[in-house]
From TrEMBL:
InterPro entries: BBE, FAD-bd_PCMH, FAD-bd_PCMH-like_sf, FAD-bd_PCMH_sub2, FAD-linked_Oxidoreductase, Oxid_FAD_bind_N
Cofactor(s) this protein requires: FAD
The entry's keywords: FAD, Flavoprotein, Oxidoreductase, Signal
Molecular functions per Gene Ontology: FAD binding; oxidoreductase activity
Protein name, as recorded: Glucooligosaccharide oxidase
One family name in Pfam for this protein: BBE
Length: 512
């Protein structure tokens, strides 16, 4: 049954199915018009802009699109959706891989927050007040301009603040300073009954806990207040590339995870590995590009990376086909720029490309020996088992004994559930934007690696909502992956704050 039909049936209107989506859409549009809410009408280029996803595989058509510029517009839009039994979804930057900002299915009311994007830093407290529609790039520029401040967040400049912060937000300051959501002081939220509430440590603290990890399920955040940090003075951006055969990959992975989990890795060492098939650079074997951002001096970097670097170099396969220095000292703003577009590696990149594909995540600790051997065997064969698409994994060592995720913030401080995990994996598999991604082949191909790790390790792994994965099922099925240990508490809060399910996409926290 279509979502629209199920709403009608639930309302006892099954006999009036002939109303159809056009008239429901008309009613929502009329309601927005009556309430003076700016909107993008179907058939206009603004409408197409508001529904365009970052991941071209996930295309959906909303019933209506509101383009608020004020909190009262958002309140009125929520009321229009609720009155008509239409699900409401906020869209900030539109970068969700399951396109949940446009509903994750057809027939929702999208509240596109792109015009609510102000950033103001208080010169005295250094608290930043930020609109949800700001993009990470604009946020970083504004924090720089208004007092050379910073907040830990992700690397891609077009990701929206709203979706990113409410579900985590890791980047090249996370190992030493925490997640984006750890810097939230206060959220202004429009709730299901169109009230405006403040959530903070002292106001609605339960809601504040829920918003920092599962925020999309509880309302529309219309304003954030963040603590900010001074910018780090100097960052060493580094890229240590290898092309490895199976033996090297097995030993190299052990060196990576041993170093990532060791006390010898200081908190300033933000570290990850990018893995793909060598063929895309014309080399045989699997690419392991170890990279990261060390906050500190070059001399300190050389000293603290040495245990890992020596172990990896000893395996052979150092790939010197890239024309760039292994380490470059940059200031904070350049670290964001270069880390995102890899200009130090490949030269300046153009506009951020859209993608069409499937993304998956998992959270793991160090893998056991048998898991490493089996997974690296599968990875070494990936070029043969997946010759036609572009696969790329990013495994970020955001946890570990010196990570701010656990040393600075108590495990229960937010509904983000994965603080104690060492590694956050993003497994991506894409095709060119003019091609159609073969979901029937590509999704199982990617899922097999996570299945392998779960089977070998004998446990169910957590997953990261910011890498939303529609293949893991709806609501509770997905929720126990995204918020393990916290899901039941989130369900109770969902019932309290949105008992009717006004804010829903296929993977919002369920009401049962
Ligand atoms: C190119 C690219 C690079 C990325 N890099 C990183 C990275 O470095 N680190 C990282 O952690 N993640 C990264 N991500 C993932 C990113 O954090 C998530 O996709 C994030 O949810 C996007 O937020 P958005 O506002 O752009 O997305 P949207 O699609 O607009 O929103 C995502 C979800 O949040 C909800 N939402 C949005 N705004 C609000 C609001 N104001 N109130 C309540 N709910 C809201 C939406 O309804 C939807 O469910 C990246 C993604 C891409 C595509
Ligand atoms: C705040 O500080 C910034 C830069 O440090 C300065 O440009 C701006 O004028 C200051 N604003 C106020 C209101 O003092
Ligand atoms: C991988 O490369 C190393 C170093 O060149 C070599 O000693 C080893 O035999 C190779 N292993 C395989 C499986 O090809
Ligand atoms: C709106 O919902 C909240 C949470 O359920 C409740 O506390 C509040 O009283 C409601 N406000 C109105 C005006 O109904």
């Amino acid at each position: 049954m279509s979502p629209l039909l199920s709403i009608l049936v639930a309302l006892g209107l099954g006999a009036q199915q002939c109303l159809g989506s056009a008239s429901l859409s008309d009613r929502v549009i009329q309601c927005l018009t009556t309430a003076d809410v700016p909107q993008a009408l179907p058939g206009t280029s603004e409408f197409d802009k508001s529904r365009s996803p970052h991941n071209l595989r996930e295309q959906f058509t909303p019933l209506a699109v509101a383009l608020p510029t004020t909190v009262s517009h958002v309140q009125a839009a929520v009321a229009c959706g609720r009155k008509n039994g239409v699900k409401v979804n906020p869209r900030s930057g539109g970068h969700n891989y399951g396109s949940h900002g446009i509903g994750g299915e057809d027939g929702h009311l999208v509240v596109d927050l792109r015009f609510m994007n102000d950033v103001k830093v208080d010169n005295c407290t250094h608290i930043a007040t930020v609109g949800p529609g700001a993009k990470l790039g604009n946020l970083a520029l504004a924090l720089d301009a208004q007092g050379k401040r910073s907040i830990p967040h992700g690397l891609c400049p077009k990701v929206g603040v709203g979706g990113h912060v409410l579900h985590g937000g890791w980047g090249y300051s996370t190992h030493n300073h925490g997640l984006f959501l750890d810097y939230l002081e206060e959220v202004q939220l429009v709730t299901a009954n169109s009230s405006v509430v403040t959530a903070s440590a002292t106001k609605n603290p339960q809601l504040f806990w829920a918003l920092r990890g599962a925020g999309m399920s509880f309302g529309i955040a219309t304003r954030f207040k963040f603590r900010t940090l001074p910018q780090p003075e100097e960052i060493q951006l580094f890229y240590i590339p290898f092309i490895w055969n199976l033996t090297q990959a097995q030993a190299g992975w052990r060196a990576f995870q041993d170093y990532a989990a060791s006390k010898a890795r200081p908190k300033e060492m933000n570290f990850r590995v990018v893995i793909s098939s060598g063929s895309f650079l014309g080399a045989e074997g699997t690419i392991f590009l170890f990279e990261g951002a060390y906050h500190g001096s070059r001399a300190d970097y050389d000293r603290v990376i040495k245990p890992f670097r020596d172990a990896a170099i000893a395996l052979g396969g150092y790939a010197d086909m890239l024309q760039y220095p292994e380490v470059t000292a940059v200031n904070y703003m350049d670290s964001l720029l270069y880390a995102n577009n890899n200009a130090l590696l490949f030269g300046p990149a153009g506009a951020e490309p859209l993608e069409s594909g499937f993304y998956k995540s998992m959270l793991t600790d160090k893998l056991s020996g048998p898991t490493v051997d089996a997974l690296m065997t599968a990875v070494s064969n990936a070029g043969q088992t997946n010759p036609s698409r572009f696969w790329l994994w990013i495994v970020s060592a955001i946890g570990g004994p010196n990570s701010a995720l656990t040393t600075m913030f108590p495990a229960s401080s937010t509904s983000y559930s994965h603080r104690s995990s060492l590694l956050l994996w993003e497994l991506g598999d894409t095709v060119g934007t003019t091609e159609t991604y073969p979901s029937d082949v590509g999704i199982p191909w990617t899922n097999q690696f996570v299945d392998l790790v779960e089977k070998k390790e004998g446990k169910t792994l957590g997953m990261y909502y910011n890498y939303a994965d529609p293949s893991i099922g709806d609501h509770g099925k997905a929720g126990r992956r995204y918020w393990p240990g916290n899901y039941d508490r989130l369900v109770a809060l969902k019932r309290a704050w949105d008992g009717e399910g006004v804010f829903e996409n296929p993977q919002t926290v369920g009401r049962r």
